[in-house]
Amino acid sequence: MRIAVIGGGVSGLVAAYRLRQRLGERVDIVVLEQSARTGGVLHTGELGGGPVDLGAEAFVGRRPEVLDLMHELGLDDQLVRPAGKRPLVWARGAAHPLPGRTLMGIPSDAESLRGLIDDAGVHQVATEPERPLQWRPGGDIDVRTLVADRFGTQVVERSVDPLLGGVYAGISASIGVRAALPALAAALDDGAPSLTDAVRRVLPAPSSAPVFGGLRDGYAALLTALTEAARPRLVTALAATRLARGSGGWVVDPLGAVDAVVLATPAPVTARLLHYVAPEAARAAAGIELSSSALVAMALPRDTELPDNSGILVATGEPLGAKAFTLSSRKWPHLAERDVALVRASFGRFGDEKSLSWTDDELVTTAADDLATVTGIPITPLATVVQRWPGGLPQYAPGHADRIATMEAAVADLEGLALAGAYLHGVGVPACVASGTAAAERIALVLPY
Ligand SMILES: Cc1cc2nc3c(=O)[nH]c(=O)nc-3n(C[C@H](O)[C@H](O)[C@H](O)COP(=O)(O)OP(=O)(O)OC[C@H]3O[C@@H](n4cnc5c(N)ncnc54)[C@H](O)[C@@H]3O)c2cc1C
């Protein structure tokens, strides 16, 4: 019995691990990965005397998937929590506290925005519940249209975009309400009389429990443990080029015949591989766009007087190249122990990817200059690492949930084929772990033993 997992990102590695758990040593699990290393957009490098994550650096700890997986893999001692500091937002040439009690930047009260937006904007937010809300139950629109209509564009550009930029490398105009904020869409479907009311209904109760977690040695620790536990045959630096039905199973070029396949590839690759075997699913996947980003990790002198915040997010329309800074040594207590101050600068959003064409030197210079601008202090990096993520994140555009439902329905009858990945039911690592687990369950159910 031979199972191919195409794509060695976290979704694929989790699928391989769950298949090994369910099916034991009797199966030959092959992970086929086109690049020279596994992990996909999870990648840990070295800077400032230790590991630093150059892709994802955290996970939502209110979801159980990553915490459970770490526990299973004996990684409890790797769990680290952020210090609980808040980020700032850079807007109109000044740093402001990020408003509290928002849903992805959509406010639940007007006062939290005072100073970040002008008084007319605060008034518009405060009086929003007085204006009748038009919402078609079951419908979907982009986040920008919804929030700009109710709260004004300043709220979009200074509160919502900076947060969406972090999660999707997108902007509110490219992200649909239903897929990105399903609980909010459900509250609106249920007849919430205003956006303010809908946000209040779905905001989690205030809690002192940490929202995020991370790994002391970076995501590399999770990838190594997953690979050891999955014991797959790893085939790297080789891309899957074609998928076809075979006698009683599947044929994956260039691997050959297999009994089952997990496609854990980004949406456009999945679309190409499904082209002949599930044309409707392929069409749906082909409509999912990707955003690209780049990251500059900087080691600064330890005594650099960075603000005491977890990061600085940049509002849409500011004359800066960077879109966000993570003040890693402030955000994570375990990184504060290093001999240097660590900062990550992020570049690129959907529709604004010019920084991806910059040279490494241009990215590093812009990162340092922009950080000096937003902190007001001189920035002199001692060492830097540049990492690009072309097509790193799928965009959850309006209609995304329907698109995914179409895809899943179109492959439902294809026995021995399962899909996993960040484009399905959430881009975060916990959602990817869940998708890898679900794909393995689907395959395990239909294998003859
Ligand atoms: C810069 C950045 C920061 C992020 N930060 C966070 C964060 O802090 N917290 C969080 O929860 N999430 C974060 N995310 C999101 C999260 O990391 C990703 O959504 C998740 O890791 C995606 O995993 P995946 O396995 O689905 O896809 P990928 O990691 O994209 O893996 C897909 C794999 O398929 C391979 N592949 C492609 N084509 C082929 C082919 N033809 N044949 C074989 N292999 C192929 C690719 O090389 C890749 O290795 C971040 C994402 C980015 C880009």
From TrEMBL:
<dbReference type="InterPro" id="IPR002937">
    <property type="entry name" value="Amino_oxidase"/>
</dbReference>
<dbReference type="Pfam" id="PF01593">
    <property type="entry name" value="Amino_oxidase"/>
</dbReference>
<dbReference type="InterPro" id="IPR036188">
    <property type="entry name" value="FAD/NAD-bd_sf"/>
</dbReference>
<keyword id="KW-0560">Oxidoreductase</keyword>
<dbReference type="InterPro" id="IPR050464">
    <property type="entry name" value="Zeta_carotene_desat/Oxidored"/>
</dbReference>
<protein>
    <submittedName>
        <fullName>Protoporphyrinogen oxidase</fullName>
        <ecNumber>1.3.3.4</ecNumber>
    </submittedName>
</protein>
<dbReference type="GO" id="GO:0004729">
    <property type="term" value="F:oxygen-dependent protoporphyrinogen oxidase activity"/>
</dbReference>
<feature type="domain" description="Amine oxidase">
    <location>
        <begin position="10"/>
        <end position="443"/>
    </location>
</feature>
